What we know:
Elements: H1 2-8, H2 21-25, H3 32-64, H4 74-77, H5 82-103, H6 109-123, H7 131-146, H8 157-182, H9 186-189, H10 198-221, H11 223-229, H12 238-254, H13 261-267, H14 269-286
Amino acid sequence: MKDLLRLLRPHQWLKNGFVFIGPLFGTAWNDAIKISGALYAFAAFCLLASGVYVMNDLIDREQDRRHPLKRQRPLASGAVGVAPALVLMAACLAGGFALVMASGSEAPWLFFAYVALNVAYTLGLKHVVVLDVFLIAAGFMLRLLAGTLGLGIAPSQWLLLCGLMLTLFLGFAKRRAEMSALSGQGAGHRRVLEHYSSGLLDQMMTVTTAGTIISYSLYTVSPDTVAAHGTKTLIGTVPLVIYGMFRYLYLLHRRGGGGDPALLLVTDRHLLAAFAGWLALVIFLLWPGPL
């Protein structure tokens, strides 16, 4: 059971928190229907994502055996057999789609698109340089849209741009971390790495880091944002975003991190404190009425 649970990668469920961005910034604090819809969407993505992870591990188990860390995964190590993994994958996907149907989402196609996107990624598109990272970012953006369009919340264009820049940054950082971890032998584990270089990935991260900070800063001072929330103080959260981005870069380049953002978030005290501080400050500044 422990190995089957590891196969689901529950720590990765933190990524599904993107569905709460809509209610957080969409003034849906007291709307029980929207909050309930966000919880359904979160649970559905948890099951669907776990199903996709099992599928990915099934297909990549031979390549994972060449990776210093991934070779310890249940399928790559032989701790879990193919048949139990197939049953677990089917159960996760069926349960996830059942939750989607029960949630009453206004955009259920987003969940089906998420699974289709990941199937295409696993079956071959992950080998297409640059496109592979855009597909990783697309998975995050579908989560964000499920928490906005799917709940009847109109997403801010600046916030969507910020989400895209952030997720592209995380994708390029993941590739950079893989190159460092595999010490020049990355192509044997992930074929697309032979088309990247450390310098190229560093440039892409520089662009997306700047894009994330600038787009989020512009969102906080946008006239639409000020009008929606009745405050100009959201710009006070920008320093925490900058600190979090710079801390991530430090962990990537000096501590060998960056390959797993969900794990990094819960294991690095500085990164966790920056995120918790940002979230607390956003809630404090945008809460409709006395706390």
